[in-house]
Amino acid sequence: GWGSQPSKATVADLMARSAARHGVDVALVRAVGWQESGWWQGARSSTGAIGVMQLMPGTASWLGPALLGRQINPYDVSDNIEGGVAYLAYLQRQTGSRRLAIASYYQGLGSVTSRGLLAETEAYVGSVASFIGNV
Description:
Elements: H1 8-22, H2 26-37, H3 57-68, H4 77-95, H5 98-107, H6 109-115, H7 119-131
Helix pairs in contact: 1-4, 2-7, 3-4, 4-5, 5-6, 5-7
């Protein structure tokens, strides 16, 4: 419920620790988390994405074992952020590009690879970029 919402300071600390662990720029993590949910763990999207980093259940069930070696619970803020950051790190490795990693976080790596960036993805990337260093 509302009582379980962690403070912004707690979210920021979890982001910093995960970013350091996975070698991702913390400013990027903060920006993606802000774009996705305003750092609100209670956030739920119309498509079923969960929490601060807006992890889809299917993505969470794949990336936990694949990238972290364990199952993650996207309803747990610590796991949610750890999963989102590990996914960003993976996307940066796969694409070799911060811009394409941000785009793939939103649109999906397969879709970006096969179709290029959709107009709404371009807007998403621009919005995330505007938050980098500002949240």
